Amino acid sequence: MNRFWQLLAGLVFECWFGLSPRAIGAADVASQTAKTEIKASDPLTFAKDLKPLLSEYCFNCHSKEKPKAGLNLERFKDDTIIMQDRKTWQMVMEMIESREMPPEKKPKPTEEQRQSMIHFIEAELAKLDCNGPVNPGKVTLRRLNRTEYNNTIRDLLGINFKPAADFPSDEVGYGFDNIGDVLSLPPILMEKYLAAAEQIVTKAIVANPAAQTLIKRIEAETLPSTANGSTFEDRALSLDTEGEAYTEFEFPQKGEYIIRARAFGQQAGPDPARMSVRVAGKELSVIDVPAIESAPGIYEVRAPLELGKQRLAVAYINNYNVSDHPDPKLRGDRNLVVDYIEVEGPLGAEPPPLPETHTRVIPRKPVPATQHEYAKEILQKFAKRAYRRPVLDEEIERLLRFIEIVKMDKGTFEEGIQLAIQAILTSPHFLFRWELDPTPEKSGTARTLTNHEIASRLSYFLWSSMPDDELFSLAEQKLLTQQETLEAQIKRMLQDPNAKALVESFASQWLTIRNLEIAQPDPDLFPEFDENLKTAMRKETELFFEAVMREDRSVLEFLDANFTFLNERLARHYEIEGIKGEQFQRVSLNKGSGRGGILTQASILTITSNPTRTSPVSRGKWILEQILGTPPPPPPPDAGELEESQQALDSASLRQRVEMHRAKPECAVCHSKMDPIGFAFENFDAIGRWRSLDGKFPVDPSGTLPSGQSFNGPDELKAILKSQETFVRSLSEKMLTFALGRGLEYYDKCAVDEIVKTLVKNDYKFSTLVSEIVTSEPFLMRKKEGDTP
Amino acid sequence: MNKSWQIPRRTFLKGLGTVVALPMLDAMAPVKTFASIGAKAKPPVRMAFVYVPNGAHMQDWTPLTQGLDFDLPYILRPLAPVKSHLTVLSGLTHDKGRTNSDNAGHHARGATVFLTGTQALKSEGADIRAGVSADQVAASVIGKQTRFASLELGTERGRQAGKCDSGYSCAYSNNISWRDESTPMAKETNPREVFERLFGSDSKKEVDENRVRRERYKKSILDFVLDDAKRLSSKVGGNDRQKLDEYLTAVREIEVRLEKAERASGQGIILPADAEKPTGVPDSFGEHIRLMGDMMVLAFQTDVTRVCTFMIANEGSNKSYPFIGVNEGHHTLSHHQGDAKKHAQIREINKFHITQFAHILQRLKSIPEGDGSLLDNCMLVYGSALSDGNAHNSENLPVLLAGRGGGTILSGRHLRYEYETPMCNLFLSMLERVGASTAAFGDSTGPLHGLEA
Prior knowledge:
Distance between the termini of chain B: 52 Å
Oligomer: heterodimer
Number of strands of chain A: 21
Strand content of chain A: 5-15%
Number of helices of chain B: 10
CATH class of the largest domain in chain B: Alpha Beta
Distance between the termini of chain A: 34 Å
Number of strands of chain B: 18
Structural class of chain A: alpha+beta
Shape of chain B: globular
Radius of gyration of chain A: 35 Å
Strand order of the largest sheet of chain B: 4-18-5-17-16-3-11-6
CATH topology of the largest domain in chain B: Alkaline Phosphatase, subunit A
Number of helices of chain A: 29
Number of domains of chain B: 2
């Protein structure tokens, strides 16, 4: 491997990667290989390399007699004990690395000594025998997240109204929102599940197919009128003089209809208020309205009507307004008040055909004699798919009780099915993805997942949804444990439209472009940044990722490629000519266009900037975290502040000011990794536009990495990044994390090694990455319940 | 760029004091506003916790004088109309927000410690551990008396991608309310959703018979899924068991609410005349905050709950506030490093938040209750778990206590407490006043002295 990689790996020791075990994996990985390099010349031992330093700087407080904070480091006698207490040594390394230990006022090791201690511990922690017993890890029970819930409902029932839009956000862990340990189920979410289930069955299944005549109600207060109409208490229309309230109504067919009105009169005079119902100017009936406000009446007229849009009106025809009648009982102002008008019909017509969502669950009309068996058949078929596994008879029996409940209430068969499905959609069997270990065998050993469990993992990985019929069928035939079948399925699934989910779930989180939603570039400095541009930015990245996926291209093209997707707006933003229209199109990029690959897409450049200016540190950090998988540790507690006098600010470019970070060695350790990477992109402003000047300073996009390799501009940096394994490893780890739904642990290193090795051999093809993940031990197996993690 | 952040969108409900016809699930034992009760029946005490991120510019926050007649510094000036109901508390500390041998992660630990007094276990995902929060302690005791045990509000959904705070899961910085040590209480951020959840979704006059049937069906579903969960429960252990327990707890909560409703006479909630149902999330951030505040006020006023938490923004929020001339992100600015320009911007943000809080307090004050106002019967804590956003320190936190706790708090003062007084002492005192006394809470050393008359 080339020198850069080796030295980068070497430097990777020097920074702390956070306590996340997954990040340890990354460190382990790099250090393991580097360790191999170093081992030849420099075998490390506990006795020679670590113990003397511990003795000098740590034992005073962390000994057997005086174990401060409960930590006695004296008890470790040789190399092996480190392995037995990983947790303690992990913490010790972190403390040394972050300079929290030794504490203030105690003697401190030199930088070299410090790095040596870290180096040793890390190397020890990375020791892993991949030929030993398999540890595939264990994923905590995962509930469906919002995306998965929406997609599963779509595929299960055919409804596309995204019921989870109002669910609370899923928490994010290890960069993804599908991590079992992190997803919780607060009571408010349970309420939403219940409500959503009800909405879903109401939309999918017609409760009473027999009674499917059209009834349309129009609130009268929404209607215009020619009768001096005024709103009556926000809920009705008062007609004060003679005239009508009217609407243009679309009668769907020629046939018999009932026109209904709920109304009352503010009565006065000898006669009751009188109403005329008219269609297309023709009076259908004159109706007396003796009802009063405290008890409105419902009045109907039935008539044959023609198809088409016609004026439907309800008229007040006998106004009476006499204030000075000799008989006081005959004084008053009569008005007609209409609450609503209803049109029912056409009566006796053929009901409209049942929607597909209904017939896929209830394909035939139920016949009373065979209802019970029919219900059983329906629920068997449905539950099997909803629970994503074979269903026991006993489970179906329990579900059939809902049919009985509804039947006793004289509800319809369809309502019974609705209720049963509501229960299924609220059941933990539906909401969680179960991987139950068969009742206790040897705890701690590993088992291969069942076919159905594999099918679910596969579909939720690539489609964020439930398995389809083909996957279910293969699972039933127990073929999904075979490598060839899996690989064939992967190829199929990546071409399926549902693979769009990999873009929406994986890519948007890996590349953090969901953060575009909250990007707020200063509107004064960047007035051209609007919704259209923001949407276009996101779309480019999504389409690009999708192309690499569907065309099975090399994943290295994520770093640099000779094509992208643009619409007119974004092309203009990039100063690329010749692209017209709102639609996105594939665009070939010339060499030197500077826009190949994700790193120079406006989306990434924007989310790694501040609202008012670029932030090379942010960009560098983002690339370290998301692209290289070597996140920098947080700043040490005594980081101090950057001295910035006003003079310095005015006379220095952003780059120069940032470079002051490296004045102190404890800052330089990490900033020398982050900052140069960020500088490479300084030609792109805070919304990703090209610029050659930053204010009045010419941009200097050159830099030197800690390895010594230097570059001038992003293209050269991309070439460097492409030339070594760190990116591929990081992408593998992230995708494995997403596929498993748990953070990676040290023992996953073996799987990651395999994945990377095969990926390199296969020209880094996207489908190979997916295949390798799916056929890896952590994906196909799990550790049984036990004490050891 | 969409600059139209001014226009509120609301729909008006029906007229004066109409009963909203609700499905029986949502009905409660005769609930009404306490406006009409005389001095004899004492209205209940309500508690609320309003959270702002990234600390505050303390130089313009802390009043110079103590006791009564204290001065209102720049940030607190919008509270002038309710000053007599305000108590400024200086010197409170959350020791468990400090690093204490973890490192960095101040924002994650901050939001976590604010209402729990416990130190967030440093974890990206596995073993998220905090502690039960004060509002949930209260809810577990007095929650049975109201339709909803508690209400959790916010304006920002969780961070959607990437990391939130070095080595800590986003769950920590996005929540202040914790049901138990591993279950944060998710917030509702859409005001319309809040309204519909509390008061029912539409005014359709459902026939009583239908309503009764629907409730019965709901109950049968809950029985069924509870049965499912119990059967599964015997087959799992460890973390899986804990996840299933969350499910069980959630289902039981809904069952309890159903039972309450059944025991009730089935009356609807009487909404006040000026109650408006929001149409959704407004474009304007200020309007969004105020609308959520209105929902809190409405919830208290109609006594559907007596415990509420409201995160005005998530901890670590990097929102910018261009409508008050602040174009930089809040979090970025809070790392001010002594820059006077940044201080000026930070205090504008702080003042903006206080202005929205003042709106809530004024609304509470304008609602008569007992022989005073609803505000008299409330205790609202407003604050942040960081003091100076740059130093990330956890002592001398910016904390306000508004309301009079049903006459148990002598408000209108600035009280300064001695160094390292735990903020949990305040919670201990509040829990007692709300009827949920406990011997200790978080790292409390005793009740907070000096609050009472």
